[in-house]
């Protein structure tokens, strides 16, 4: 069985694959921004208090709040 991590736990420079969303409320919003299951995401920057984080996804940079990133389950590459 594969163990998934939360996007909020990933370190700067690390690339991961989105596998699932825990929260249906945020699911549609993230899908519209290119965060779809199977998409590769790289953490680019993390703010001093860990909120927000900046990720590269689908060819552009996206800023996510920590509480949003906590609901994105990812698999390390």
From TrEMBL:
The keyword Signal belongs to this UniProt entry's keyword annotation: no
Gene3D superfamilies linked: 2.30.30.90
Keywords: Iron
InterPro entries per UniProt: Fe-transptr_FeoA-like, FeoA, FeoA_core_dom, Transcriptional_repressor_C
SMART domains: FeoA (SM00899)
Domain Ferrous iron transporter FeoA-like intervals: 5-76
Protein name: Ferrous iron transport protein A
């Amino acid at each position: 069985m594969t163990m998934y991590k939360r996007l909020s736990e990933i370190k700067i420079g690390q690339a991961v694959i989105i596998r699932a969303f825990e929260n249906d409320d945020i699911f549609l919003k993230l899908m519209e921004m290119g965060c779809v299951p199977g998409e590769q995401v790289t953490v680019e920057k993390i703010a001093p208090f860990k909120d927000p984080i900046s990720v590269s996804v689908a060819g552009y940079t996206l800023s996510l709040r920590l509480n949003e990133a906590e609901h994105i389950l990812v698999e390390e590459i």
